[in-house]
Design a protein that fits this description.
Elements (H helix, E strand, L loop, with lengths): L13 H15 L3 E2 L6 E4 L2 E6 L2 E5 L3 H14 L12
């Protein structure tokens, strides 16, 4: 029997492992997880929510979005900014 040290892309639990990984990163950056929906995190007026492997950041202040994006990229190089949601 083999035991994997890391999750492999495409595995049955892949999206859950990815979510848990990102949720831990957000908690370390002082985001709070919503009690109503576990896929929503917030810090002040900055809101982050997940859908499968996508993450959307919402805030009236675009500087806060840019700062949070940079912090997430520094802690996880696999994260990439794919632009404005309207794109």
């Amino acid at each position: 029997m083999l035991e994997f040290k890391k999750n492999l892309y495409g595995q049955k639990q892949g999206s859950r492992i990815w979510f848990l990984h990102l949720a831990n990163k957000l908690r370390r950056l002082n985001f709070e997880q919503s009690e109503v929906d576990g896929c929503i995190f917030y810090k002040g007026d900055l809101i982050v929510f997940f859908y499968v492997d996508d993450m959307i950041l919402l805030c009236p202040d675009s500087n806060k979005i840019d700062e949070a994006t940079q912090q997430l990229k520094q802690s996880n190089p696999e994260i990439e900014d794919q632009g404005d949601i309207s794109d």
